Amino acid sequence: MKTKILAASIMVLLGSGATVAQTYQxxxxxxxxxxxxxxxxxxDSLGLNGTYHFTQVQTANLPLAEAGxxxxxxxxxxxxxxxxxxINAGIEFYVPDxxxxxxxxxxxxxxxGYRNNDWGVRLGVTPVAGLLVWTSYFDEPxxxxxxxxxxxxxxxxxxxxxxxxxxxxxxxxxxxxxxGDFYFNRTFSVGTGYSDEYENDAFxxxxxxxxxxxxxxxxxxxxxxxxxxxxVGARMRF
Length: 238
Known about the structure:
Number of helices: 2
Strand order of the largest sheet: 1-2-3-4-5-6-7-8-9-10-11-12-13-14
Oligomer: single chain
Order of helices and strands: HEEHEEEEEEEEEEEE
Structural class: mainly beta
Shape: globular
Mean pLDDT: 90
CATH topology: Porin
């Protein structure tokens, strides 16, 4: 039912005649994920997301999905998962006239009787255009060594490539991940990725399409060792 409601909402947006914009400051969206665990009952969950940029983000001549990142745009954001049972809210700040990046995040978890509030920080650098390298620390005993990076490169001919990955050395396990997205043009990308969390290998296929500069839809399919999931979502910019 939730998937049908979201699909109908996307069609309404596409038919709304929204004005094509070269700038935006707010992005908001919703997604429904259908998860099918092995040997258990399937489940649908709703996720919401929103980002407010402190200044207008220019999108001209950039892959639309990466415009904020490429412009090193400081922002505040909030994301929810699993029917608001998990909520992340934070701020990303690129220090003006330097290559330094800092972010802070609060997380609230309330799932089937388990409740936890946590906070974390990220410190990073942007040594060259389109590249961000950072490490994270959360309010837990000790520091788990970790490194993460995201790089968006212009390939010419209206094509771009996004590569992101990371590695965390936890006490009980390691958690690597790597993802890539190829932009066929400014509006359309297809990507794939791999992650390993608690020795649970997961492979993902994903795609995002901007129907106008303001309205986009996205699809993702993930196959893990013990479940598979399918996500459909939409976002709008203002």
